[in-house]
Specification:
- Keywords: Hydrolase, Membrane, Signal.
- This protein has helices spanning 56-59, 96-109, 115-122, 137-153, 160-164, 176-192, 207-210, 217-224, 231-237, 240-253, 262-279, 291-308, 314-318, 321-339; strands at 5-10, 24-25, 76-77, 79-84, 168-172, 204-205.
- By secondary structure, it is α/β, with parallel strands linked by helices.
- The longest helix has 19 residues, at 321-339.
- The chain binds 2-acetamido-2-deoxy-beta-D-glucopyranose (3 copies).
């Protein structure tokens, strides 16, 4: 889910001469989505709560402590590895029907005397299942800009010659948003290098590495296809924190609390955040939630990822073994070549 595009670059053609042989380093950069930690937008109280949906863009000018890169004295960059998530996308096929469902419920059962209900009923539902998590135009421009920032930071590696000699390698998962992110990244790079007539660059689809979780039988049995693996998430979804949100929402809408379920609450949260991310508007959907509610929903998202992808089960981490083995082998190989 998170792993998407993998970029590899190695050594510039001019290998450091023997006199500088002691100044070798190899450098590894991992880009994963970082939560927006400064409310720099100052427009919406929810701006901080996109969880894994924070945009690269928002962080591009922000200095995140510990991530400023300074080359150690006399070191030469030999290689850059970047593991990059796809750019901003539309909602997925799973989430759109839930959005439609809460919208319809409000239109049919909401208190017509309420101005909030009127605003929501009059809101145009433009999300559809065909969007299916596709890359949004904003995602394209994010990838282009990311490519330019990385190139500017490592000019020795992101060079015309390296590119032409195919020493820049791009691996992607087969997900269309990932393939398109990869294309956009390459486009950004070509434009930065002033290579407008290239054929759109070369990339390789490798789900064995990039979607390692789909290729690990033990992970699939123990977690992915196991109905009880997310047991704690279910408990939280049915717990008092979620109950309180549903009853507040019901009160604001003049609807019976029993008509609202946890999936609709999540869909409301997504509607608020997608409208803000994709269109830059604070929609009336945001008014259905209080800041406290949004914290609960972000926690719910974290809890799910904790059990499904992260520390909850040991196999979640072990399933990425192949990817990291490959990555470290590649680093070792680059160091060896440089030493030769
Ligand atoms: C870096 O290289 C210069 C010139 O070769 C040398 O004078 C200096 O001591 C080196 N610095 C470090 C930290 O190795
Ligand atoms: C991917 O890009 C192609 C070509 O630019 C476009 O036709 C297609 O709709 C895009 N697909 C997605 C899923 O974004
Ligand atoms: C499913 O997950 C639960 C909770 O971790 C575990 O006890 C159970 O053994 C798993 N089932 C299978 C078939 O692996």
């Amino acid at each position: 889910m998170l792993r998407c595009l993998w970029l590899r670059l190695s050594g510039a053609a001019s290998v450091p001469g023997p006199g500088r042989a002691s100044s070798r380093c190899s450098l590894l950069i991992l880009c994963v989505s970082i939560r927006l930690c400064a409310a720099s937008l100052g427009r919406s109280p929810w701006a901080e709560y996109y969880g894994t949906k924070s945009r690269y863009e928002v962080l591009s000018g922000v200095s995140v402590p510990g991530t400023d890169w300074l080359a150690p004295a006399n070191c030469t960059v030999l290689q850059v590895n970047a593991l990059i998530r796809h750019g901003t996308r539309y909602p997925t096929r799973k989430n759109v029907p839930r959005m439609v469902e809460i919208h319809q419920l409000i239109r049919e059962q909401g208190d017509v005397g309420s101005s909030l209900v009127q605003a929501l009923a009059g809101w145009h539902m433009w999300y559809n299942e065909r969007m299916d998590g596709n890359l949004h135009p904003l995602g394209i421009s994010e990838m282009v800009k990311l490519a330019k920032r990385l190139s500017a930071r490592f000019p020795a590696l992101f060079a015309v010659q390296s590119y032409k000699e195919k020493r820049l390698k791009f691996l992607t998962s087969s997900k269309h948003r990932c393939v398109n992110s990869t294309k956009s990244f390459i486009q950004g790079l070509e434009s930065y290098l002033n290579l407008p007539d290239q054929e759109g660059g070369q990339w390789e689809v490798n789900d064995g590495l990039m979607r390692f979780f789909d290729h690990c039988e033990k992970f699939k049995n123990l977690v992915e296809n196991n109905n009880t693996a997310l047991h704690q998430v279910e408990i939280f979804k049915n717990g008092p924190e979620m109950e309180r949100i549903m009853s507040n929402m019901a009160k604001k809408l003049g609807i019976s609390p029993s008509a609202i379920n946890a999936n609709m609450v999540e869909a409301t949260f997504y509607l608020c955040t997608y409208e803000f991310i994709l269109k830059g508007v604070i929609s009336p959907w945001c008014d259905l939630l209080e800041e406290e509610d949004v914290e609960v929903l972000e926690y719910l998202g974290d809890l799910k990822q904790y059990w499904k992808r992260s520390y909850g089960y040991k196999i979640n981490g072990l399933s990425s073994y192949r990817l990291f083995q490959d990555l470290f082998q590649y680093m070792d190989q680059t160091i060896e070549e440089s030493e030769r």
